[in-house]
Design brief:
six-stranded antiparallel β-sheet; 1 helix; 9% helix
Length: 231
């Protein structure tokens, strides 16, 4: 069964496990997930479940919804996706972990927090980058000689060899340290070289499905993955 973990300021405040085909998220008590905050609309969003998939839909809310830092109106959720609504973060798990319009706002407050502003600005910049590039990109943040790398091939290689698509720096990094494979709209990072030299969001990985705004480290080179919109 799917699970939604509700967090506020990085603290878990609720775990919702459901067998329903649809759950509602909003500020009022008649929602399945109640987020008691003026930044949240009365009926803010819906999540619809269909077998192994889940679709989150923004219910024309004032402040919107973000999935992995990307502002969306609707989005098919993947395991461990992070949904931001107001000041709350909701983490979607496909399976429950074993270990556990303005006239109708009715009091909804326009969210003007630093976090909301940062998310909106980051989303705007990301969309501009992918529109100009023509697709999903890696943006070099440290240790790179080029700022952006368009992920427009079925396989993109990273390493110290001269023939790789994306050169990286670092002690003991392999000639071909990692690759990124593309299957339709999905991207996977695969470690091919030394263990511990390929990381996503600070964690060493061997294989990892990439999500928008993931931070990728290969040796001393750091990239941010920005996924092009499928809309």
């Amino acid at each position: 069964m799917p699970e939604i973990v509700v967090k506020f300021e990085d603290k878990v405040i609720e775990r919702v496990v459901t067998q329903k085909k649809k759950i509602s998220i909003g500020r009022t008590p008649d929602n399945d997930i109640v987020l008691d905050n003026k930044a949240v609309s009365r009926k803010h969003a819906l999540i619809e479940f269909d077998q192994d998939s889940a679709l989150i839909i923004d219910n024309e809310s004032l402040n919107g919804i973000f999935v992995n830092s990307r502002k969306v109106t609707e989005e098919v959720l993947r395991d461990d996706d992070q949904i931001t609504i107001g000041k709350f973060d909701l983490v979607y798990h496909r399976d429950t972990p074993r270990e556990t319009q303005l006239a109708e706002l009715d009091g909804t407050m326009i969210l003007k927090t630093r976090k909301q502003k940062e998310l909106l600005e980051r989303d705007k910049i990301a969309r501009e980058i992918t529109e100009v590039a023509g697709g999903s990109v890696l943006v070099g943040e440290a240790g790179t000689t080029k700022k952006q790398f368009l992920l427009n091939r079925p396989v993109i290689t990273l390493g110290k060899a001269k023939f790789v698509n994306i050169p990286v720096k670092g002690f003991l990094v392999s000639r071909i340290q990692a690759k990124i494979t593309k299957d339709k709209e999905d991207f996977m990072l695969v470690n091919l070289g030394r263990r511990g030299k390929t990381k996503v969001n600070g964690e060493s990985v061997q294989r990892c499905n990439l999500k928008n705004d993931d931070l990728i480290e290969v040796g001393r080179s750091v990239f941010r993955f920005i996924q092009g919109s499928s809309k």
